[in-house]
TrEMBL record, chain A:
InterPro entries: Ribosomal_uL13 (IPR005822), Ribosomal_uL13_bac-type (IPR005823), Ribosomal_uL13_sf (IPR036899)
This protein's encoding gene: LOC100187383
Annotated organism of origin: Ciona intestinalis (Transparent sea squirt)
Keyword Mitochondrion: yes
Protein name as catalogued: Large ribosomal subunit protein uL13m
Family: Belongs to the universal ribosomal protein uL13 family.
Gene Ontology, cellular component aspect: mitochondrial large ribosomal subunit; ribosome
Source domain of life: Eukaryota
Cellular compartments annotated: Mitochondrion
Keywords assigned: Mitochondrion, Ribonucleoprotein, Ribosomal protein
Listed CDD domains: Ribosomal_L13 (cd00392)
TrEMBL record, chain B:
Family to which the UniProt record says this protein belongs: Belongs to the ribonuclease III family. Mitochondrion-specific ribosomal protein mL44 subfamily.
Originating organism: Ciona intestinalis
Any one GO molecular-function label of the UniProt entry: double-stranded RNA binding
Protein name: Large ribosomal subunit protein mL44
Major localization class: mitochondrion
Residues covered by the RNase III domain: 40-160
Pfam families: DSRM_MRPL44 (PF22892), RM44_endonuclase (PF22935)
Transmembrane segments: none
InterPro entries: Ribosomal_mL44_DSRM_metazoa (IPR044444), RM44_endonuclase (IPR055189), RNase_III_dom (IPR000999), RNase_III_sf (IPR036389)
Signal peptide: none
Lineage of the organism: Eukaryota, Metazoa, Chordata, Tunicata, Ascidiacea
Name of the gene this protein is made from: LOC100176475
CDD domains assigned to the protein according to its UniProt record, in alphabetical order: DSRM_MRPL44 (cd19874)
GO annotation, cellular component aspect: mitochondrial large ribosomal subunit; nucleus
From TrEMBL, chain C:
GO annotation terms (biological process): mitochondrial translation
Main location: mitochondrion
InterPro entries: Ribosomal_mL43, Ribosomal_mL43/mS25/NADH_DH, Thioredoxin-like_sf
Gene Ontology MF terms in the entry: structural constituent of ribosome
Keywords, alphabetical: Mitochondrion, Ribonucleoprotein, Ribosomal protein
Protein name stated in the entry: Large ribosomal subunit protein mL43
Family recorded in the similarity comment: Belongs to the mitochondrion-specific ribosomal protein mL43 family.
GO cellular component: mitochondrial large ribosomal subunit
SMART domains the record matches: L51_S25_CI-B8
Ribosomal protein/NADH dehydrogenase domain segment(s): 35-108
Compartment(s) where it occurs, according to its Swiss-Prot or TrEMBL record: Mitochondrion
PANTHER family in the record: 39S RIBOSOMAL PROTEIN L43, LARGE RIBOSOMAL SUBUNIT PROTEIN ML43
Pfam families for the chain: L51_S25_CI-B8 (PF05047)
Amino acid sequence: MSFGRANQQWSTFSKAWYLLNADRQPPGKLADVAAKYLMGMHKPIYHPTSRVGDHVVIINAKEIAYSGNKWEEKTFHSHTGRKKGRLMMRAFEVHELDPTWIVKRYVYRRLPKGSYGGMYKRNLFQKLHVFADENIPEEIKENISFVIPQPRRVFKGINDYTQEEIDNFPKLWIPSPDFLKR
Amino acid sequence: MPPRWMKHYYLALERKEEIEGPDPPLPRSSKPNWNITAELTAFKNRLDIEVPNELLVSALTEPLFNEPSTEDTGYSKLLKDGSKFVEEFVSHYVKEAFPFLTSEGRSSICDFLLLDSNIAYLALNLGYNDLLQLTGLRSSEKVLAESLVASIEAINLSEGPVAAAKFILNFLVPQLVGKDIIDDIWKPSNPMALLTESFKISGKPAPQARLIQQCGVNTVTPIYYVGLFSGKDLIAKSGAESIVLAETDAAKLALKHIYHVHTLSKSPPMGNLLNQDFLNKLFYPLIDNKTALSS
Amino acid sequence: FTGKTSAHAFLKSVLQNGVGKHVKQLKRITLNFSEASPSSRHVRKFVENDLVEFARKHPSVVVYAMPEMEQRPSVCVEYLNGREEVASLEKLEPDEILQKLDTYSNRSGVEILKIVKDIHTDHPSIQGQWHLFTNNTHNI
């Protein structure tokens, strides 16, 4: 089954819109996946000289998860170029200021570098849309038609279970009423 | 480089060419290395035809149409009979080669094959333009096309209709190679209506387009993926920048399968694909002594 | 970006040649040579010994021998598509001239250029060319 030639070309080279949920995902792995889709490396027609990248919409960027003590230890640096112009912020401080900044930074650093990057890198970055929570503009929501699977499996937290599920869960022993207080 | 004092002469020549346009190209026969007998012999050997020289020359000589008093060398008669023969044979071939196509589609293929520009291109690349004797009153494209048709009639007169038909099969019909019947030649304006009509004849429910998927609808490059359904059966799918375009394209795709003109379906018989049964069927109306064939 | 491109073309034949009847694309050969000059002695020898046989072997080609005083030996070939080529025959032995003419007679007449790849298939895949919605399981 093949289309007419013009429509086949249109269907092959149109840009898709992907949704990626950043809820409880490490930003590094998130950026790896997003950069791959931005460059179009997931397509069988990929070639470095042809621009076949897709749009990626990342939601829930404020819910990203660092492992270990990285929120405290990880630092982001900047320098104005003048004396005493150094700026250093810890990850949780940056995240409080702008919850989308860390994801954007990680994706930008994973896009092609050097003389080959250049304007291409900036063009690709324009196709990334990051939002702090699930509220995204209606215009962008209508464009989306595909979902990228999350890079890390999300386990259910204790707060995600309803009271009914907790009550119905089989118990090996019934603790005494003062067990938790102790 | 020309001398300095000749500058104004050359500039004047350039100016003259600007105003009057370039000179018409000289006929090849005006050059010293030209022998008309040898050229005609080589021409006949090249195309594998056996026609008397006088007949061939009269097919390649354009009479002065504006002056009816001048003697017509049989060109107009050859042209009249030839165009009738070519038209009949081409339509017969198309009918045999595309048995699933409607009459509208068949006539569009015939029109394409008999286009003046198409036949003139063929004649130009078979070496007709060197031997052609032109009056220069009409466009050379039209005369080229006419002379090829007249020469086919000349073959018909001297060698018989089968040889003339073989000439058409050898040179005119292969023009269809690489052409898509529906996309390039027929170009139906409303394929959905054609599809509905053909479904009505075969007794299936009318085709209906349903949107399967869409992407990037608020951008300048949206894509809509549409499926054509007849009842619960999926007939064809297509994607395009608007729903109407996708629906039209899917209908064309379905038509290609119904008419057996899809790139994946069997190609029309030409060249090596011509088998003896098909040729017999093709030449049957041309042969006078029809009993000879059956024996 | 640099603007450095050499002349190139796709490999193609003239007029679907060979689908129906195969037509030899060379239509005319003109041998220009001198009657007396020593530079044309090989061409004169070729015309005396081999030219008739060559012309008999290629009945669809018209061969002209054009002797003229004080002329350098050259060959002009004309093809059905309207192109013509001129080549020098200086310092070529008769067998080399024959080889050269054979090469010209076997050509299609299309200008010799760098051939760029025309990647295509006569048998497109059954499932069709890839597009956005092929095997894409990650739908909303």
